[in-house]
Amino acid sequence: QVQLVESGGGLVQPGGSLRLSCAASGSFSSILAMGWYRQAPGNQRELVARITQGGSTNYPGSVKGRFTISRDNAKNTVYLQMNSLKPEDTAVYYCNVLAHTGVNYWGQGTQVTVSS
Predict the structure, then answer these.
(1) What is the number of other CB atoms lying within 10 angstroms of the CB of residue 88?
(2) How far apart are CA 77 and CA 23, in angstroms?
(3) What one-character-per-residue DSSP string does 58-114 give?
(4) How far, rounded to the nearest angstrom, does the alpha carbon of residue 57 sit from its chain's CA centroid?
(5) Distance in angstroms (rounded) separating the CA atoms of residues 102 and 17
(6) Judging by DSSP bridges, how do beta strands 57-58 and 2-7 pair with one another?
(7) What's the sign of the alpha-carbon dihedral 57, 72, 79, 81?
(8) Are the beta carbons of 96 and 34 closer than 8 angstroms?
(9) What is the pLDDT of residues 4-49, one digit of tens each?
């Protein structure tokens, strides 16, 4: 059984910062990549950031330059530093782990609300 435990969501004012964390534990094959997705009401789930085992990262244009993903391979933990937050960043953020088997694992989601 695989568990992804997320933390760090909350309410923040526009221009503020938040840091999300996700720790993976349990029985799974080696990790290929870890990442974060988000889903706002009425929208599809979208990629926010991804980092491979080797440290390569990718971001969509909407968050590039504002969000930074990092990981601690020894702890199977991934972090998302979010700066200069905007109201349109409001969503439920989900941690994702892609194993070498091709299986995707998902966290339960953490709410991020950007509002004054």
Answers:
(1) 10
(2) 4
(3) E--TTTTTTEEEEEEGGGTEEEEEE-S--GGG-EEEEEEEEETTS-EEE---EEEEE
(4) 12
(5) 33
(6) unpaired
(7) negative
(8) yes
(9) 999 999 999 999 999 999 999 887 668 889 999 999 999 999 999 9
